[in-house]
């Protein structure tokens, strides 16, 4: 009788163990919201260049690379599992019409619809076959999250981690609200999330200073100050005490704020192998560039962006300037949202003008790099040296920091002291070729590879560089250094 009782206890314990294991698996997949989502949509004509086919995967399901490497001693990252209520793309799984546009933008792990080669009088087949997508810069949060699943030093043990990655999408969350929405409403969801985050056990270890995340908007969109008013856009996410401790990577930083760190805007090129990168670099290197300089953008109503107006005036008055004019309402907007037309203009130009607009940094400056077009900056806060110092080119073996851009003081342009065409015409063919070569060498550092596949070849992309720098930053924090808090 006693033996039977013991046997029954063992059976009961076994069933309880198996049941708890199954329950933990179910909860695991429930909370790992993004990697298991997919959706079906019918491509519309408004998504130019979308690949044919009825189904587009939001994300594949990469298995977390929880593998110990010798190089992982100080580089282990624990990825938080968020409750489903913080899954901002759950509408894609549910098929909610409210999230239809967001689902298409976030398809293919955030890369967006795949671009197919097109040839016309305006593009000349500039987009090659494979590796190019109609990527929205707000999707960087999703792309980064997917790449983290393939990070070689990911660990499922929070106590062994040097850093904690927070897969929350503050930029995507803010996209749900217009600028005339109450500030209290705009602050609500992210505030709820931060309260949950700061209540987690690992937060108490360093008060969140070992946590990091990506926010795919400019820093200014998360630094709204003031009371419950409806003036202006954005929210106060980065002003919250919790965020003052975390490392939050935005696509544009406040260069006068020590805590701010920026990573490059995503572009349309997401290679899956080093051979794809080399082939595109060769194409950019050998491209015929009839335009001395180029600009893609539009004026603002009532002349609110005076520098941009001056740049457009000088471009329009020159026979050596190519331009995509986004000023003419819907037509202009559609023109400037065409990856083919933008890349064709930049690949056909020697210099690409990057005047600041609503903020200092422009995605156009990264598109210019990918096209092998030398960027021309007009304010220090627009330069890679200030914004993307992690991704700026390494010094050569001789220690020389070679020129890859041109700087023209915005005040001189506004005061009519300089003519842009005259300044750029002073560079010799040899100097232009040398700068362009430096730009082309930068391409791997300023692109994000396809996060759905394992990259073939040896190359550090924008993600690799960002993670290396974040981990170095976390180790300094762990060693007690004061990084600005």
Automatic annotation (TrEMBL):
Keyword Lipid metabolism listed: no
Transmembrane segments: 12-32
Entry annotated with the keyword Transferase: yes
Matching InterPro entries: Exostosin (IPR004263), Exostosin_GT47 (IPR040911)
Gene Ontology MF, one: glycosyltransferase activity
A GO-annotated cellular component: Golgi membrane
PROSITE patterns found in the cross-reference section: PROKAR_LIPOPROTEIN (PS51257)
Membrane topology according to the record: Single-pass type II membrane protein
Subcellular location: Golgi apparatus membrane
Top-rank taxon, per record: Eukaryota
UniProt keyword list: Glycosyltransferase, Golgi apparatus, Membrane, Signal-anchor, Transferase, Transmembrane, Transmembrane helix
Residue intervals of the Exostosin GT47 domain: 72-420
Recorded family membership: Belongs to the glycosyltransferase 47 family.
Protein name in the entry: Exostosin GT47 domain-containing protein
UniProt organism field: Triticum aestivum (Wheat)
